[in-house]
Amino acid sequence: MMNLLEEAIIYATVMHQGKVRKFNGIPYILHPMEVAQILSTMTEDAEIITAGILHDIVEDTDGTLAEIEKRFGERVAALVDSESENTYPDEDKSVTWQRRKEESLTVLQNSTDIGVKMLWLADKLANIRSLARIYSEQGEAMWSMLHQNDPAMHRWYYKTIAETVELSLNKTGAFKELIKHINSIWPGTFDSEKARYKKYREVSVDGCKLLGRGAKGDVYRYDDELVIKVFNQKNTYHDVEQEIAQSRKAFILGIPTAISFGIVSVGDRYGAMYELVESDTLSGCIAKAPGQVEIYAKIMAELAQTIHSIEVTDEDGFSDVSERYLNYVRSGIAYENEALAEKCIKLIEGISHSDTLVHGDFHSGNVFLQNGEPLLIDMDRVATGHPIAEISDLYYFYVVLGEDEPSIVENFMGFSYETAKQFFSLFLRYYLGTDDEYKLKEVIEKASLLCYIRIIRKLRKNGFVSDTEQRRIKYYIERIAELTDKLDTLAYQQLPN
């Protein structure tokens, strides 16, 4: 009786019969066999190696996932599926190239299966071996032979794959070889050290106190002196490096910032270590003493004033925060009401360019108090822009997110929704330096417009929109329509002192 691998070899040979590789005309079956051989250097798992033999069946033959599952099992079929692109048969492959790659990369980035990462690494290593050989013979002329003739797009694709599998597979020879080939075709893409053996310090947060949650990860108290931010699965080593670099840049400019001193691995995720002795997040302080919320609101307002008074130049390399909100419009409300989206874009673009900073993810979970002094973390969204963007973020976190479900804010912040609303109200009064209700209402209306734009994008982000979510979107669109008819600018006259 044949074993799994033997049966897969026979099946793949039959299914790929008559097909040849693009560049050298050799029988196509040699490619999946090469992928299987690369996989055998990383694992002895027969199902993963079998998936390597079968990985192009669905995409390049008339074989189906159902047939693969019936003959080789559910896991093999799932692994093959992770590598099978939507081919868009009615469209030109050159036109769909980027779309196909972005869709398939999303599958890789969302997977926690080591077999998926191994399969991707093996397949792309086999492919780039071929590219590197042709490139050494033909140079730049090679790109004209491909469906995508922009070498920068191929660099983006291979670089993203390498960054995604790095934490799990950086010790394998296959990963190191992939890095070498990427650097040979696109010199300087990766630090050459990545092609050598490197072991990350491995730590565990089991039993550690969770201090806060954010869009990119969770923050834990590791011991009496150290705090660790554990990044989400989709964040690569490069993402962590960028955030640390951004923190150092912000610190030099005068933002009180906690600087990470090292990147570690926490299971299958990256972590950044911070020395924050006897400190807690501002959210933690409010949760412990909600009666002192006014004190913490004042600290937050003074911190915001510090950030928003820092002037920078184009050479400092910060993006404009308005681009984030324009993206919210384009990927949210534009799908619902194009005319209203245009009005929103006009208002956002109408805010004059600012040379001062905003944090971009400003809330009490990202502020630590150490000896009474505030220190910020999560610096990856620091940008230039009008402070209304920052006020909008705060209004979103403390008020809008809890309008339908107060528990969302309570779970995120660690204190009651009523306290959250009180905190925002006090923050705004201290920040603007006024108790003028008319002035406060004016700023809140402008901030709320940006909030509604953001939450529509959040509701549409995953593609499928439920009936309940659609009703909420309809409500927010009505509010946006009222505000766009009323407002002629999102800026306000009284700026922080």
Folded structure, characterized:
Helix 3 packs across helix 8 and helix 7 (93-110) packs parallel to helix 9 (151-169). This protein has helices at 4-15, 30-40, 46-54, 57-60, 65-72, 74-82, 93-110, 114-138, 151-169, 173-185, 237-253, 282-288, 293-308, 322-330, 338-349, 388-398, 406-413, 417-432, 437-460, 467-486, and strands spanning 209-213, 217-221, 226-231, 260-266, 269-275, 279-281, 357-358, 367-370, 373-376, 383-384. It has three domains: 4-195, Hypothetical protein af1432; 209-275, Phosphorylase Kinase, domain 1; 279-486, Aminoglycoside 3'-phosphotransferase, Chain: A, domain 2 (Alpha-Beta Complex). The protein is globular and about 80 Å long. Helix content is 54%, strand content 9%. The chain has 497 residues and is of the alpha+beta class.
